[in-house]
Amino acid sequence: MTAPDAAELRRLTRELLAAHPPATTDPTDFLKARFDAGLAWVHYPAGLGGLDAPRSLQPVVDAELAAANAPDNDPRRIGIGLGMAAPTILGFGTDEQKQRFLRPLWVGEEVWCQLFSEPGAGSDLAALGTRAVRDGEEWVVDGQKVWTSSAHVARWAILIARTDPDVPKHRGISYFICDMTDPGVEVRPLRQITGEAEFNEVFLTGVRIPDSRRLGAVGEGWKVAQTTLMNERVSIGGSRIPREGGMIGPLAQTWRERPELRTHDLHQRLLTLWVEAEVARLAGERLRQQLVAGQPGPEGSGMKLAFARLNQEISGLEVELLGDEGLLYSDWTMRRPDHVDFTGRDAGYRYLRSKGNSIEGGTSEVLLNIVAERVLGLPAEPRNDKDVAWKDLSR
Predict the structure, then answer these.
(1) What is the three-class DSSP state of 33?
(2) How far apart are CA 300 and CA 209, in angstroms?
(3) What does the alpha-carbon distance between residue 221 and residue 133 come to, in Å, rounded to a whole number?
(4) Selection from 207, 175, 178 nearest residue 110 by Cα
């Protein structure tokens, strides 16, 4: 079957809109119909929300739907599912897993979270200690995860756990899909410097996961996790935004609307950051075009690095521009939001929340190593744990 071109995708999208008018169709029903028509992510296989079309043609569908005021699937709320779980399930899941999970994930009926980082295994994720022990057709999981976004609203989690402590740390890990409603899963909020608790810590005590919810082979979880991590960094640092989108937008708006705050020095710094933000935006567009030809590579780490640095510098300049007003913070209420809203809050929130950008999705220090070794081809850092069994590592 020949992959559809842009004209065919426009025709299919208009057929969808005619059969399910957005003004009179329940939003969830419309999203289900869109998925079933293959217009969710057109580059996915037919029957799994796509039409085996080039990834570059997705904007053709999106533009038609936007013009018709069709509902979207609130991607900020389900970003972990869309950006991390879905490509991993597509790459390593069984046919049954793809059929079970991808549709409700994309529609937004089921929220996902990521059970990767641990108190003693953040930057060195492969040192994780959460154990999964085989018991017949099930795995019994015990351990603790931390910095888990959306765990308080998630139905499913992508989980990596140690299944063999007798081999080096990267080779003894397996990858699972965990039901967050199962007995033994406890979610506790982690209150942040912003006052709210968008992150959580998750305790797993005797959680039983069927072997049918394992992704990839036993012991090859690190390989599977690399797909998740590369897609995570692209989704964080390489999302499509318009010019002056993201953090630079509120700063530029304040500059235009508040001429009494301007100084020559602040002007020069704003110009520098505006140009850097535009360069990062265009680099992200180029990265997305590269994805048309294959899977994400280490270049996403560079984009995520730029995202973190720019957010912190831009938010710092915004607070400085506002002077005394920048010292105010509007709301310390303890809340548990289901997504991060950088541009819909005040300057104080942006300044505080951006501090986490250099930690989440891989610390900037780790990403610098990835860029140095896998992009620039520099010699790898010396490692003395490469061939040591995990159980023999000092902790």
Answers:
(1) helix
(2) 32
(3) 14
(4) 178
Q: What is the C-alpha separation between 95 and 394, in angstroms, rounded?
A: 41
CA dihedral for 320, 322, 323, 329, sign (positive or negative) = negative
CA distance 152 to 148: 9
**d(Cα 195, Cα 129) in Å, to the nearest integer?**
30
Please report, as a single letter, which amino acid is at residue 232: E
CA 358-360-361 angle, 5° bins: 105
Per-residue pLDDT reduced to its tens digit, 34-88: 999 999 999 999 999 999 998 889 999 999 999 999 999 999 899 999 999 999 9
In angstroms, the CA 139 to CA 1 distance is 41
Residue type, 260: E
Q: Which residues are catalytic?
A: 232
Please check whether residue 117 is in contact with residue 144, taking contact to mean a CB–CB distance below 8 angstroms. Answer: no
Amino acid (one-letter) located at 193? I
Beta bridge partners of 190: 199
Cβ-based neighbour number of residue 239 at 10 Å: 18
CB within 8 A of 224, min separation 6: which ones? 88, 91, 92, 160, 175, 215, 216
Q: How far is CA 163 from the centre of its chain?
A: 25
Task: Supply 103's token pair.
Answer: 């549709």
296: left (phi over 0), alpha (psi -120 to 50) or beta: beta
Instruction: For residue range 255-301, list pLDDT tens digits in order.
Output: 999 999 999 999 999 999 999 999 998 888 887 777 665 666 677 77
Helices (H), the chain: 6-19, 27-36, 58-67, 79-80, 86-92, 95-107, 221-237, 248-257, 264-291, 299-321, 347-353, 364-370
The CA-atom distances, in angstroms, between 199 and each of 90, 121, 357 are 26, 17, 13
Residue 82 DSSP label: I
